[in-house]
From TrEMBL:
The organism of origin for this protein: Glossina morsitans morsitans
Lineage top rank: taxon: Eukaryota
Chief location bin: nucleus
Biased composition (Polar residues): 14-29
InterPro entries, alphabetized: bHLH_dom, E-box_TF_Regulators, HLH_DNA-bd_sf
Phylogenetic classification of the source organism: Eukaryota, Metazoa, Ecdysozoa, Arthropoda, Hexapoda
Protein name per Swiss-Prot or TrEMBL: BHLH domain-containing protein
Subcellular localization(s) per the UniProt record: Nucleus
Length: 126
């Protein structure tokens, strides 16, 4: 009998907790939404900090030029390819065109001579 009484008390406590939480949620549905919004703001700020950090590593003219996120990603990809060409060719001046010539081994005379943004900027400075 004692077990039954304890069970009833437990059941009553659970029912009162549920009704309190239901009334709380109906009064303030914004609390969970605020938490979600705060997490999203934090995530967005984190992504923006990462883009700003990446932006500082990409050389551009002028240096303080405003870039969109997609421009930052495209320039970063291009700059990584440029640095890869510098490492492979061992040449700092126009390594990308040397790399392409070496890659195709002059098998095709129709290979277009391309120059990357960073090789062009270096050539313009000289």
């Amino acid at each position: 009998m004692d077990y039954y009484t304890n069970y009833q008390q437990l059941d009553m406590n659970l029912n009162s907790r549920v009704s309190q939480s239901e009334s709380d949620s109906s009064n303030s549905p914004a609390k969970p939404r605020q938490a979600v919004n705060a997490r999203e703001r934090c995530r967005t700020q984190s992504v923006n900090v990462a883009f700003n950090t990446l932006r500082t590593l990409i050389p551009t003219e002028p240096h303080d030029r405003k870039l969109s996120k997609i421009e930052i990603l495209r320039l970063a990809k291009s700059y990584i390819s440029h640095l890869d060409a510098v490492i492979i060719t061992g040449n700092v001046e126009r390594p990308c065109s040397l790399y392409l010539t070496h890659q195709y081994d002059d098998k095709s005379s129709n290979v277009r001579t391309t120059i990357c943004t960073f090789c062009a900027n270096a050539a313009n400075k000289n």
